[in-house]
Design a protein that fits this description.
single chain; alpha/beta; Ribose 5-phosphate Isomerase B, Chain: A; five-stranded parallel β-sheet; 6 helices; 5 strands; 16% strand; disordered N terminus
Length: 149
């Protein structure tokens, strides 16, 4: 069963441009609404510029979910998690994607374009979009995030 359509903001750096384009097509095929903040070519860019765009749009509530990609995913994770209310999860497998939603209510998915294959990336996105947050004791832990300066 497919989850209801969601508006998703997506961005990357040059190292993950091709994967972003493939995932964008996959998301559109699923019926998702996608806003691509760039870049719009594989020309070299600074990943913090695009991580900031996506993270700000999730942080300010314009989008409930975002996807970021760079070569390893590490840099984008570091950028995104600096923004209030953003819970960015770097996922390399389906279990991590599932748990990032169930226990952490991750609202930004981060992938490494140079370390994750295209088919696996699509499956990670699918699981991440379709897995609900469990709440309960996990909400208490998320509330502790908000108390961190």
């Amino acid at each position: 069963m497919t989850a209801p359509s969601t508006a998703i903001v997506i961005g990357c750096d040059h190292a993950a441009f091709e994967m972003k384009e493939k995932l964008k097509a996959y998301l559109l095929q699923r019926g998702e609404s996608v806003e691509d903040v760039g870049p719009h070519s594989a020309e070299s860019v600074d990943y913090p510029d695009y991580g900031k765009k996506v993270a700000q749009m999730v942080s300010n509530g314009r989008f409930a979910r975002g996807i970021l990609l760079c070569g390893t995913g590490l840099g984008m994770s570091m950028v995104a998690n600096r923004f209030p209310g953003v819970r960015a999860a770097l996922c390399h497998d389906l279990f991590g994607a599932t748990m990032s939603r169930k226990h952490n209510d991750a609202n930004v998915l981060v992938l490494g374009g140079r370390v994750t294959g295209e088919t696996l990336a699509e499956e990670i996105v699918k699981v991440w979009l379709e897995t609900p947050f469990e709440g309960g004791r996990h909400q208490k832990r998320l509330d502790l995030f908000d108390r961190i300066d």
